[in-house]
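Need tokens for this chain, all 397 residues.
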Amino acid sequence: MLRRWHLILLITEIVLLSLFLSSCSQPIEGNLLGVDLGDLKKSELSSFLEIMEERWLESPLSLKVNGLTISLNKKELGISWNIEAMKRFILKGEGETVPLMFSWDEEKVKSLLDDLAQKTYSTPEDARLEEKRVIPSREGKRLDEERAILELREALSRGKEEITLTTFQLLQPKIDTSIILEKLGTPHLLARYQTSLEGKDEPTVYNIQKASSSINGYILEKGEIFSFNNIVGRAEKEDGYLETNIMVNGRLSPGYGGGVCQVSSTLYNALLGTEAQILERHPHSGYSETTSYVPPGRDAAVSYGSKDLRFFYPTQKVVIFAYLQEESLICEIWGEKENSLQKTWETQIVSLERKGEKEGLLTVETTVRNGEKIEYRYQDTYLIPWELEQKIKEEFQ
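Here are the structure tokens for all 397 residues:
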């Protein structure tokens, strides 16, 4: 009987030893902060995590809140990794990507977020009338500190070192823009059009913002002719515009005011859906990825002294808004009457021909209808990079 128990114990020890040796020989799997753990031995895991922690703590943390960016030393927040918990996660193979498990000094983190909340607080602004302008209302913002702590912890656990906090309490103004529009007698949204700012460089976005602000809230009286150039101005260096790329003779060249044509083109597309009478509009000399914020035939190029966007409203007063929202430029037209027009527009390729080795000429025809009636029909010709040929064909299918 005793021998039998000895035999059972011996077999058990052999099985346990076998399992232990097997577990030791199993490769480590996972990824920590972009580093593959596959080449690590289990005996090296603790020291590896300690080294990674020290390196991570030495790199700065960038926090962005409501337009304010600050750089922090992570050690100032008392952050330290829970290395044992991370080891268990790795050895159990609980996930391909290893999250950062850490503790921090709660009081220091709360003090930081409270300071940020005070520095980034913005008061709500009431809408008001100012000469020929409607100054729109604006929501106020205050960082929601309780939710921001959770947002910060979650971002850090994913190893992020550039973090934008987005949890805010929104503070409403007492006088909304709609109240001013009602008093003006322009409570009806006639049209709204937006174009993308995705991928735009900072100088271009700055120029777009500046030009948009020039026309935002403009009150256009019935019969008054709106001139984009007269209101926005020359858009040169001395006017405060930045240098970026502009279209010159069909090709992109360095110049001041790049991006202003996106504002005029976005406005033009909003106008097409209303009763606006277009007096002057010009295409760009070229079409490229940079000007693809609207389709060919739907742009409105402006250049002070030579190309303008001019129009008027024959039967009503309107208010024009142009503003940036996240990664979009938005233009809105508000008027006295509801918009019952059935406006449609279509653009077709007339010709697409190669010109030289790398360029081509694209001619399109645009037709704007109000119901069955044709209001506008015009042709535009653009110099294009020939590499866009197939993409343009696909867009017009």
